[in-house]
Design goal:
The chain is mainly α. The protein has one domain (66-243). Helix content is 66%, strand content 0%. The chain has helices spanning 27-49, 59-79, 84-103, 135-157, 160-166, 171-206, 211-243. α1 crosses α3 (84-103), α4 packs parallel to α7 (211-243) and α6 (171-206) runs antiparallel to α7. The longest helix has 36 residues, at 171-206.
Protein backbone atom coordinates (compact mmCIF):
# COMPACT_ATOMS: atom_id res chain seq x y z
CA UNK A 1 0.00 0.00 0.00
CA UNK A 2 1.15 3.56 0.61
CA UNK A 3 0.34 4.18 -3.04
CA UNK A 4 1.80 0.86 -4.28
CA UNK A 5 -0.79 -1.89 -4.07
CA UNK A 6 -0.76 -5.48 -5.22
CA UNK A 7 -3.14 -5.51 -8.18
CA UNK A 8 -5.25 -8.46 -9.29
CA UNK A 9 -3.69 -8.18 -12.76
CA UNK A 10 -0.35 -9.24 -11.24
CA UNK A 11 -1.79 -12.67 -10.39
CA UNK A 12 -3.64 -13.36 -13.67
CA UNK A 13 -1.43 -13.87 -16.70
CA UNK A 14 -4.15 -13.64 -19.33
CA UNK A 15 -3.31 -10.51 -21.42
CA UNK A 16 -6.99 -9.82 -22.11
CA UNK A 17 -7.61 -9.43 -18.39
CA UNK A 18 -5.40 -6.33 -18.26
CA UNK A 19 -8.21 -4.25 -19.76
CA UNK A 20 -10.83 -5.53 -17.32
CA UNK A 21 -12.08 -3.17 -14.57
CA UNK A 22 -11.25 -5.92 -12.09
CA UNK A 23 -7.58 -5.78 -13.06
CA UNK A 24 -6.96 -2.82 -10.75
CA UNK A 25 -8.52 -4.36 -7.65
CA UNK A 26 -6.22 -3.95 -4.66
CA UNK A 27 -5.65 -7.54 -3.63
CA UNK A 28 -3.60 -6.61 -0.56
CA UNK A 29 -6.32 -4.28 0.73
CA UNK A 30 -9.03 -6.90 0.24
CA UNK A 31 -6.97 -9.62 1.91
CA UNK A 32 -5.96 -7.51 4.91
CA UNK A 33 -9.51 -6.20 5.29
CA UNK A 34 -10.80 -9.78 5.38
CA UNK A 35 -8.16 -10.69 7.97
CA UNK A 36 -9.15 -7.71 10.14
CA UNK A 37 -12.85 -8.53 9.97
CA UNK A 38 -12.22 -12.21 10.72
CA UNK A 39 -9.96 -11.33 13.64
CA UNK A 40 -12.57 -9.00 15.15
CA UNK A 41 -15.27 -11.68 14.85
CA UNK A 42 -13.09 -14.47 16.26
CA UNK A 43 -11.76 -12.43 19.19
CA UNK A 44 -15.27 -11.12 19.87
CA UNK A 45 -16.64 -14.67 19.96
CA UNK A 46 -13.86 -15.85 22.26
CA UNK A 47 -14.36 -12.94 24.64
CA UNK A 48 -18.13 -13.52 24.62
CA UNK A 49 -17.60 -17.11 25.72
CA UNK A 50 -15.86 -15.79 28.85
CA UNK A 51 -18.58 -13.28 29.71
CA UNK A 52 -21.62 -13.92 31.88
CA UNK A 53 -24.23 -12.04 33.90
CA UNK A 54 -22.21 -12.60 37.06
CA UNK A 55 -19.06 -11.20 35.48
CA UNK A 56 -16.24 -12.10 33.11
CA UNK A 57 -14.19 -15.18 33.91
CA UNK A 58 -11.06 -14.57 31.84
CA UNK A 59 -8.84 -11.68 30.83
CA UNK A 60 -10.23 -11.68 27.29
CA UNK A 61 -13.75 -11.48 28.66
CA UNK A 62 -12.79 -8.63 30.97
CA UNK A 63 -11.23 -6.78 28.05
CA UNK A 64 -14.34 -7.33 25.95
CA UNK A 65 -16.57 -6.07 28.75
CA UNK A 66 -14.38 -3.00 29.23
CA UNK A 67 -14.46 -2.14 25.53
CA UNK A 68 -18.21 -2.75 25.38
CA UNK A 69 -18.84 -0.37 28.28
CA UNK A 70 -16.48 2.19 26.75
CA UNK A 71 -18.26 2.22 23.38
CA UNK A 72 -21.66 2.08 25.06
CA UNK A 73 -20.86 5.22 27.06
CA UNK A 74 -19.43 6.91 23.96
CA UNK A 75 -22.43 6.25 21.72
CA UNK A 76 -24.99 6.90 24.46
CA UNK A 77 -23.38 10.20 25.38
CA UNK A 78 -23.42 11.53 21.81
CA UNK A 79 -26.69 10.12 20.42
CA UNK A 80 -28.95 9.92 23.47
CA UNK A 81 -31.68 7.47 24.37
CA UNK A 82 -31.94 6.13 20.79
CA UNK A 83 -28.31 5.09 20.70
CA UNK A 84 -29.01 1.34 20.73
CA UNK A 85 -30.08 1.52 17.08
CA UNK A 86 -26.59 2.67 16.11
CA UNK A 87 -24.46 0.91 18.71
CA UNK A 88 -23.59 -2.12 16.56
CA UNK A 89 -22.54 0.06 13.63
CA UNK A 90 -20.32 2.38 15.66
CA UNK A 91 -18.81 -0.55 17.56
CA UNK A 92 -18.13 -2.39 14.31
CA UNK A 93 -16.41 0.66 12.82
CA UNK A 94 -14.33 1.17 15.96
CA UNK A 95 -13.10 -2.43 16.14
CA UNK A 96 -12.45 -2.73 12.41
CA UNK A 97 -10.49 0.54 12.24
CA UNK A 98 -8.54 -0.42 15.34
CA UNK A 99 -7.66 -3.82 13.85
CA UNK A 100 -6.84 -2.24 10.48
CA UNK A 101 -4.55 0.31 12.08
CA UNK A 102 -2.79 -2.26 14.26
CA UNK A 103 -2.19 -4.90 11.59
CA UNK A 104 0.31 -2.65 9.83
CA UNK A 105 2.40 -2.32 12.99
CA UNK A 106 4.69 -5.28 12.95
CA UNK A 107 8.19 -6.50 12.05
CA UNK A 108 7.17 -7.10 8.44
CA UNK A 109 10.43 -5.63 7.13
CA UNK A 110 12.22 -8.71 8.46
CA UNK A 111 10.39 -10.92 5.95
CA UNK A 112 10.76 -8.77 2.83
CA UNK A 113 14.04 -10.43 1.79
CA UNK A 114 12.47 -13.91 1.76
CA UNK A 115 11.47 -15.59 -1.50
CA UNK A 116 7.79 -15.97 -0.63
CA UNK A 117 7.31 -12.23 -0.06
CA UNK A 118 5.27 -10.66 -2.91
CA UNK A 119 6.84 -8.27 -5.38
CA UNK A 120 5.29 -5.33 -7.22
CA UNK A 121 5.00 -5.13 -11.01
CA UNK A 122 8.21 -3.11 -11.26
CA UNK A 123 10.09 -5.70 -9.18
CA UNK A 124 10.14 -3.58 -6.03
CA UNK A 125 9.51 -5.34 -2.72
CA UNK A 126 5.94 -5.04 -1.49
CA UNK A 127 5.56 -2.93 1.65
CA UNK A 128 2.83 -4.35 3.90
CA UNK A 129 0.86 -1.53 5.52
CA UNK A 130 -2.47 -1.00 7.25
CA UNK A 131 -5.56 -1.24 5.00
CA UNK A 132 -6.59 2.13 6.42
CA UNK A 133 -3.78 3.70 4.38
CA UNK A 134 -5.87 2.86 1.30
CA UNK A 135 -8.29 5.69 0.52
CA UNK A 136 -10.81 3.17 -0.83
CA UNK A 137 -11.19 1.74 2.67
CA UNK A 138 -11.44 5.02 4.56
CA UNK A 139 -13.80 6.49 1.95
CA UNK A 140 -16.01 3.41 2.23
CA UNK A 141 -16.18 3.79 6.01
CA UNK A 142 -16.91 7.51 5.72
CA UNK A 143 -19.64 6.83 3.14
CA UNK A 144 -21.35 4.38 5.49
CA UNK A 145 -21.18 6.98 8.25
CA UNK A 146 -22.52 9.67 5.90
CA UNK A 147 -25.55 7.73 4.72
CA UNK A 148 -26.26 6.58 8.27
CA UNK A 149 -26.60 10.08 9.69
CA UNK A 150 -28.51 11.37 6.66
CA UNK A 151 -31.00 8.49 6.70
CA UNK A 152 -31.29 8.63 10.49
CA UNK A 153 -32.35 12.27 10.20
CA UNK A 154 -34.95 11.36 7.59
CA UNK A 155 -36.18 8.43 9.71
CA UNK A 156 -36.47 10.61 12.80
CA UNK A 157 -38.06 13.72 11.32
CA UNK A 158 -39.53 12.60 7.99
CA UNK A 159 -39.44 14.64 4.75
CA UNK A 160 -39.32 17.89 6.70
CA UNK A 161 -35.72 17.02 7.58
CA UNK A 162 -34.59 17.65 4.01
CA UNK A 163 -36.86 20.69 3.77
CA UNK A 164 -35.17 22.12 6.84
CA UNK A 165 -31.75 21.41 5.37
CA UNK A 166 -32.25 22.72 1.86
CA UNK A 167 -35.24 25.03 2.09
CA UNK A 168 -33.55 27.91 3.86
CA UNK A 169 -30.95 30.56 3.14
CA UNK A 170 -28.43 28.35 4.94
CA UNK A 171 -28.80 25.58 2.32
CA UNK A 172 -25.39 26.21 0.64
CA UNK A 173 -23.65 25.95 4.01
CA UNK A 174 -25.57 22.79 4.86
CA UNK A 175 -24.61 21.23 1.53
CA UNK A 176 -20.96 22.15 2.04
CA UNK A 177 -21.11 20.72 5.55
CA UNK A 178 -22.51 17.44 4.20
CA UNK A 179 -19.59 17.23 1.76
CA UNK A 180 -16.93 18.16 4.29
CA UNK A 181 -17.97 15.73 7.01
CA UNK A 182 -17.37 12.43 5.16
CA UNK A 183 -14.36 13.89 3.36
CA UNK A 184 -12.61 14.83 6.59
CA UNK A 185 -13.44 11.45 8.13
CA UNK A 186 -11.86 9.60 5.22
CA UNK A 187 -8.85 11.86 4.66
CA UNK A 188 -7.94 12.30 8.34
CA UNK A 189 -7.78 8.57 9.01
CA UNK A 190 -5.83 7.78 5.84
CA UNK A 191 -3.33 10.64 6.24
CA UNK A 192 -2.57 10.01 9.93
CA UNK A 193 -2.02 6.25 9.53
CA UNK A 194 0.01 6.76 6.35
CA UNK A 195 2.19 9.31 8.13
CA UNK A 196 2.80 6.78 10.90
CA UNK A 197 3.79 4.12 8.36
CA UNK A 198 6.23 6.49 6.65
CA UNK A 199 7.69 7.63 9.97
CA UNK A 200 8.35 4.05 11.03
CA UNK A 201 9.96 3.28 7.68
CA UNK A 202 12.26 6.28 8.03
CA UNK A 203 13.35 5.27 11.54
CA UNK A 204 13.95 1.69 10.38
CA UNK A 205 16.41 2.96 7.80
CA UNK A 206 18.20 5.24 10.29
CA UNK A 207 18.31 2.94 13.31
CA UNK A 208 16.87 -0.53 12.63
CA UNK A 209 17.59 -2.07 16.03
CA UNK A 210 16.09 -0.20 19.00
CA UNK A 211 14.49 3.12 18.08
CA UNK A 212 11.63 1.65 15.95
CA UNK A 213 10.29 -0.18 19.03
CA UNK A 214 9.44 3.14 20.65
CA UNK A 215 7.92 4.36 17.39
CA UNK A 216 5.77 1.24 17.17
CA UNK A 217 4.55 1.82 20.72
CA UNK A 218 3.55 5.34 19.74
CA UNK A 219 1.82 3.95 16.64
CA UNK A 220 -0.30 1.65 18.79
CA UNK A 221 -1.48 4.71 20.70
CA UNK A 222 -2.25 6.57 17.47
CA UNK A 223 -4.08 3.52 16.09
CA UNK A 224 -6.40 3.47 19.09
CA UNK A 225 -6.91 7.23 19.06
CA UNK A 226 -7.86 7.28 15.37
CA UNK A 227 -10.40 4.48 15.85
CA UNK A 228 -11.86 6.44 18.76
CA UNK A 229 -11.97 9.72 16.79
CA UNK A 230 -13.75 8.10 13.83
CA UNK A 231 -16.33 6.47 16.13
CA UNK A 232 -16.75 9.69 18.13
CA UNK A 233 -17.30 11.93 15.11
CA UNK A 234 -19.71 9.46 13.51
CA UNK A 235 -21.68 9.35 16.78
CA UNK A 236 -21.73 13.15 16.98
CA UNK A 237 -23.01 13.49 13.42
CA UNK A 238 -25.76 10.92 14.01
CA UNK A 239 -26.64 12.57 17.32
CA UNK A 240 -27.05 15.95 15.60
CA UNK A 241 -29.40 14.60 12.94
CA UNK A 242 -31.48 12.68 15.47
CA UNK A 243 -31.76 15.59 17.90
CA UNK A 244 -32.16 18.67 15.73
CA UNK A 245 -34.63 19.93 13.09
CA UNK A 246 -37.75 19.23 15.16
Amino acid sequence: MLGKNLLLSQFITDPSFKSSPLANLHVDTIALTAICMSSVLIIGRLSLSQMSVEGSNGKLGQLGETLYNFIDDLVHGQIGHEYKKFFALIAGMFFFIMAGNLIGIGPWKAFEHMSFWPKLTDGETFDLASPTTDFNVTLGLATISFFTYILSGFYKHGPKYFKTLFGTAMAPIEIMDMIVRPSTLAIRLMVVITADELMRGAFLMVCPMFLPSGIMGFEVFIALIQAFVFALLSSIYIGLTVAEHH
